[in-house]
Write a structure and sequence with these properties.
By secondary structure, the protein is an alpha+beta fold. The protein is built from 9 helices and 11 strands.
């Protein structure tokens, strides 16, 4: 969920709860005020009646209306203390029962006790209360709507620099030039973020350039002594004066040197892939490349008496010629290495997949480690243990998927182009 959406949800939710609680409190407070005004009116009526009786020693003539009426009831018992109450009573002028506010008090006139009931209709009060509540609810709804619009529009614009920064970071690559340069913005927080990211990118670029130069220099410098060692060993092997044990030792040294050279090339390739030093903008004919690699290894397939089943469709992808050759070669080498003699290898190429399936010599590979560097199942010593790791890195660079499946006593490697 986006931060803005999450903020809107929390903000509007809390606002609604606060407004609901406030509306309930407002209703009861307003009702108390209006009823209190009615009570003051009733007390004024009582005061007027008492003054009239004191002055004339008789009950006043009352003219009842639709909203107020007074009744006098003679009583033999001394009346109780005056009190007010809300009560439903029959309004003779309206011919219906309605809620009224009553003030009941005692009165003595010419030695007689009377109970006086002053009734004041609450209908207008309730109508006024309903109107005020409806207006309040409408105002709350308008405030919520305005708050929602403001949050979406104003906050959306305020967060635009953040999303612009994220877009620049997504498009940024270490191998690309120029370096990351984020714009200056008016919001202090986003300005601080952009300046910090610019400084961080500058430091990363410097470290990357230093590492790249070191890798290139180390690769160049290591090739020369390796080539010298191999050439000297070849000269010594051609000397007939060497004893058998010396020849064996030299052969082992040459094998180790050859393995070291391959390991060096593989690690250098992984470094270049991780640093995105390859531009994948060529239309590569995968069918042609795979046919060439199969032809190069034909003697090896025949030496192990492997049955080849090949199904290749015309397939061209936006790739890199050299990386495509390495990917195909490494997968074929893996099939050769881990297929038992007289086994079978099936090679399939379509516009969506490149699949190599070979019969297993020693059961399944570890699916969690098969693409890890230096993984060698069954403690095998041949190879560098980097072939499948390089294939995995090539697929990541090209945006391909790669999957290992073990089924029917066969290894299957599936490269997906889409």
């Amino acid at each position: 969920m986006k931060l803005l959406s999450k903020y809107n949800r929390i903000n509007i939710g809390i606002t609604i709860i606060v407004f609901l609680l406030g509306s309930v409190c407002f209703y009861f407070v307003l009702r108390y005020i209006l009823v209190n005004q009615l009570d003051e009116t009733l007390q004024s009526e009582r005061q007027e009646i008492l003054q009239y009786v004191k002055a004339h020693q008789q009950l006043p003539d009352i003219e009842n209306t639709r909203e107020q009426w007074i009744s006098f009831e003679q009583s033999e018992v001394q009346p109780a203390k005056a009190f007010m109450q809300s009560h439903y009573a029959f309004n003779q002028h309206k011919h219906e029962e309605e809620e009224v506010r009553q003030y009941i008090f005692s009165l003595q006139v010419a030695g007689n006790n009377y109970t006086v009931t002053v009734n004041k209709s609450q209908e207008e009060t309730e109508d006024l209360l309903q109107i005020i509540i409806l207006v309040t609810i409408a105002m709350i709804a308008l405030i919520l709507l305005a708050n929602f619009i403001i949050n979406r529009k104003v906050l959306g614009r305020l967060w635009n620099p953040f999303y612009t920064t994220i877009a620049h970071i997504k498009d940024y690559h270490l191998s690309g030039k120029p370096s990351l340069t984020l714009d200056k913005v008016s919001t202090d927080e986003f300005l601080l973020l952009n300046e910090s990211l610019n400084e961080m990118a500058l430091r990363i670029n410097k470290d990357y350039d230093s590492l790249k130069r070191f890798t290139e220099n180390a690769a160049h410098e290591m090739q020369t002594p390796l080539a010298v060692i191999r050439s000297k060993i070849e000269l010594m092997l051609q000397t007939s004066e060497l004893k058998q044990i010396q020849m064996q030792h030299l052969q082992e040294i040459e094998d180790a040197t050859s393995k070291l050279a391959k390991l060096h090339q593989s690690l250098l390739m992984l470094t270049k892939l991780e640093n995105n030093q390859f531009i994948l903008n060529e239309q590569v004919d995968l069918k042609k490349i795979i046919e060439e690699k199969i032809a190069e290894k034909q003697d090896l397939f025949e030496a192990k008496k492997l049955k080849l089943t090949i199904t290749l469709e015309e397939t061209k992808v936006s790739f890199h010629q050299h990386l495509a050759e390495i990917m195909a070669s490494n997968l074929l080498n893996n099939a050769l290495r881990y297929t038992a003699a007289e086994g079978s290898v099936t090679i399939t190429l379509t516009d969506s997949h490149f699949i190599i399936c070979n019969t297993a010599a020693n059961g399944s590979l570890d699916t969690g480690k098969v693409f890890q560097r230096f993984y060698k199942p069954g403690n095998k010593q041949e190879g560098t243990g980097l072939g499948l790791a390089i294939v995995k890195e090539i697929c990541l660079t090209a945006g391909f998927s790669i999957e290992y499946v073990f089924a029917n006593e066969s290894h299957k490697f599936i490269v997906g182009f889409k």
